[in-house]
Write a structure and sequence with these properties.
286 residues, alpha+beta, DUF559 domain-containing protein, 3-stranded antiparallel beta sheet, 3 domains, Endonuclease, Chain A, Restrct_endonuc-II-like, DUF559, 15% strand
Length: 286
């Protein structure tokens, strides 16, 4: 692989920005870095940090200020990890560069930043302190969907965290299909509502969660509004209702922006007892 390709691939891991330390540690020689700068394949952002093109302006701005992107902002830039809806850019700096500017920190010392977007362990350690309980659980759910991660990998990151944070790992469930599913599960269980997740129903397949015996709650991400998936979901709803179930479909907006208006509908069904199979006619499943 030629140097230019190697540089581009390394930078692509972190939104188009790469540090000299990373380049050197991956076998790119110092003279090759200087040559890339001369040929304008790399643009110096600040000493030891480079823009390789097609970069994220927010990441470039963070690095220019002496920081790197971390916490929920870094996690949202990793494929498949729950992106907390937050307009702020979460950053951290090396100890010797710390200023009065607001920044994220963890419950334990973190290594000096080498990458423009913090790797998952460092970002997760910061999120444990910064994110809300429900968002942290949703983040952990999504991290644990990666085959290389387990609860045993997350627990050491929280050793110095308060018990209330460490105990959140008990509420994690990597079977959740999406961040909004994680949020709904967390919120309902915190209200004492008993439910089962990823339940297999005959003729229907897996549903996100079942409250009581017959209230199905499905959480639809963007992909559910597209083409064949939309049609499949509606067909599943028809089968579910014909079998005696109630179906509620919640969108991203319902969960993230309209929960205070949506939850009373769920509560009304439960208070009325409509989530119970009083006639014992439903097919039982896991």
């Amino acid at each position: 692989m030629d140097t230019a390709t190697a540089v581009q691939q390394l930078a692509a891991l972190d939104s188009g920005v790469v540090s000299r330390q990373v380049l050197l540690s991956c076998g790119v020689a110092a003279e090759e870095i200087e040559r890339a700068v001369r040929h304008r394949h790399l643009t110096v952002i600040r000493r030891g940090w480079y823009d390789a093109g097609n970069s994220d302006p927010a990441v470039v701005a963070a690095v220019r200020s002496g920081a790197v992107v971390t916490c929920t902002s870094a996690l949202a830039r990793r494929d498949g990890i729950w992106g907390v809806p937050d307009a702020r850019l979460h950053v951290r700096r090396s100890r010797h560069l710390r200023t009065a500017h607001e920044q994220c920190s963890a419950y334990r010392p973190l290594p000096t930043p080498r990458r423009a977007v913090d790797p998952i362990p460092e970002a997760l350690a910061c999120a444990a302190r910064c994110a809300s309980a429900e968002d942290f659980v949703a983040i952990c759910d999504s991290v644990l969907r990666r085959p290389e991660w387990s609860v045993g990998d997350i627990a050491p990151l929280l050793i110095r965290a308060p018990l209330r944070v460490q105990r959140l790992l008990r509420e994690v469930d990597p079977r959740a299909d999406s961040g909004i599913e994680s949020l709904v599960r967390f919120r309902l269980r915190r209200r004492g509502i008993r439910l089962r997740t990823q339940v297999s129903l005959p003729g229907v397949g897996l549903v996100d969660m079942v409250v009581g015996d017959r209230l199905i709650i499905e959480c639809d991400g963007k992909r559910h509004h597209l083409g064949q998936q939309f049609g499949k979901d509606r067909w599943r709803d028809l089968v579910s209702v014909a079998d005696g179930y109630l179906v509620m479909r919640l969108t991203y907006a319902n969960v993230v922006h309209q929960w205070d208006e949506v939850f009373p509908f769920i509560r009304a069904v439960i208070r009325r007892g409509s989530h119970r199979d009083r006639c014992g006619k439903l097919s039982r499943s896991g």
